[in-house]
Amino acid sequence: MNIIIMGPPGVGKGTQSHRIIEHHNVVHISTGDILRMAIRSGTDLGKKVKSVMDSGDLVSDDLMMELIKDRLNQEDAKKGWLLDGFPRTPKQAEAFVAMLKELNSKVDAVLVMRAPAEEIVRRLAGRITCRSCNEVMNLIGLGGNAPKYCPFCGEHEDNNRHKPALYQRADDAEETVRHRLEVFRKKTLPAAWILEEAYQLHEIDGIGRPADVAQRIESVL
Ligand code: AMP
Known about the structure:
- The structure is a single chain.
- The chain is α/β, with parallel strands linked by helices.
- The protein folds into 2 domains: 2-116 and 175-220, P-loop containing nucleotide triphosphate hydrolases (Rossmann fold); 127-167, no CATH class.
- 48% of the residues lie in helices and 15% in strands.
- Strands 2-3-1-4-8 form a 5-stranded parallel β-sheet, sandwiched between helices. Strands 6-5-7 form a 3-stranded antiparallel β-sheet.
- Helix 1 (13-24) packs across helix 8, helix 2 crosses helix 3 (44-55) and helix 5 runs parallel beside helix 7.
- It is globular and about 50 Å long.
- Bound molecules: adenosine monophosphate (AMP).
- Adenosine monophosphate (AMP) binds at residues 9, 31-32, 35, 52-53, 56-59, 64, 85-88, 92, 171, 180.
């Protein structure tokens, strides 16, 4: 099964993606995670994209097409994939549909998660990420304080380098979140409507408990 999950930042794509890959035995391909990993490893790609990502803008279409082609060519992607964070622009969507057609492949479902902007800003203000396993948590659910270790992988605070295990992404600051929401509305939603011309698209209400949202997703998958 090949699935694309789309939605504004903070709508719950990451949480739902973890569930979907377990249930449907597909590989999770998050372009945001791949780029953040490149920044952390200090690769050429990482150096190229850091300032664009921190500002909440989008990385160039050409670079993203190259990145996604490489990733889908890897062996583990053969069993099926869940794309999270790609495509993000009409140009990426068009190029992607053409690329899959050439490979005689297709997308079985496009999920577009929706939630009002104010709810998203509220959620992202408390979002923290583990610098080791990339798991995302919310301070609201942790009593307002970031723990000194990651409850998922056990990564500890690095006292010598004053590096906490859990950090707030630079692009989760409120003003940047508002900018990313606008980028979503202006560029990524139009990309979704392009995908809809080629594949089955389902809008998913992202409001409510993660388990309820998961059920809505399962009922369309
Ligand atoms: P995400 O983790 O999906 O919110 O992505 C974080 C950031 O990575 C975005 O704000 C962009 O700067 C960059 N990014 C991720 N995926 C793409 C894409 N498909 N096209 C352009 N930029 C992307």
